[in-house]
Amino acid sequence: MSMTKFSLNRYKQQIRNDFNSRSNYESEFHRKAAARLVELAKLQAGQRVLDVATGTGLAAIAAARVVGLTGHVLGTDFSAGMLQQARAQAEALGLKNIVFENVDADNQELQERQYDIVLCSSAIVYFTDIPAVLEQWHSALRSEGRVVFSCLAETSPSASVVFRSVVKKYGITIPNPNALLGTPEKCRQILEAAGFEGTEMVPEQFGSYLQDASAVWAGNARSAFGLQDAQWSEEQLNQCRLEYLAEIKKVSTEDGYWNDVTLFFVTAHKARGA
C-alpha cells in the first residue's frame, strides 16, 4: 500500500490500538488457526524457526515444542504488551529454545539463510509492503526452506464485507485488506515474484453463526480497516450501525447470520541451492 510517512505512522498506531483493545486476542479462532498452521508446517526436531507477528506466541510456542532443544524459535512482534504475555507463557512452560523480540515486521532486518521455516499466523495482511516482506523472508531462508502463513479469502469474513458495503453508502470507501492474497492464484503470483516456488494452499472454514452482530460492528469500526477517518456525529455513527444490523438480519436464516471465514494456509519453498 502507498502511504506518506504521516499516514504510515497513523496506520501503525491504529493497529496497535486495535490489538491493545482486544481483551480476547487468544480467541478460539486464533488458537485453532495457529495450531493448524504449525501442524501443516511439518516441523522437525532441530529446525530453526522464525515466527513473524507472533502476538502472544501461539504459533511460536507450539513450534518450540516440536523442534525441541536442538532447534530454536524466534518470535517477533511490534506489540510489547503481547510479547510480555508470550514470554510469560514460554517461561511457565519451561521452554529454553525460544526467544521473543520487539520488532516491526515491515522494518525487520534478517540475516541471509538463517532459518528453515518462516511462520506467520493470520497477520500478514497487516504489513504495509507484503511483497517486500516476502522477499526478505525468502532471503532469510536456507536452501529448500519454507514459508508457511495463513491469510483470509478476499470474501472473508463475510460480516466484514457487509460492513464495508454499508459504510460505502455513507461516503467512506474501505479497501478490502484481503484482496492482495485473497485467491489461490494471487498467492501463487506474489510468492513466485518473491522467488518462491511450489506454492500449496489448504483452504479451511473457520466460520460460525454470529452471536452478537453489534459486537462485530464495533470490532470492524475500531479496527485498522475501520472508521478512524470518519468525522461522524454519534447520530450518524448509530444510523450506520443500525443499517449494518438490518443488512445482517436481512441475509440471516433461522439459525442466524453465517459469518464465512475461509482461511488459506499457504506453503511455498525456496529452491535448492538458492
Automatic annotation (TrEMBL):
Q: What class of enzyme is it?
A: transferase
Q: Which UniProt keywords apply?
A: Methyltransferase, Transferase
Q: What is its EC number?
A: 2.1.1.288
Q: Which GO terms describe its biological process?
A: methylation
Which Gene Ontology MF annotations are present?
methyltransferase activity
**Pathway per the UniProt entry:** Phospholipid metabolism; Lipid metabolism
InterPro entries hit by this protein: Methyltranfer_dom, SAM-dependent_MTases_sf, UbiE/COQ5_MeTrFase
Q: Where is the Methyltransferase domain?
A: 45-151
This protein's name: Aklanonic acid methyltransferase DnrC
Species of provenance: Acaryochloris thomasi RCC1774
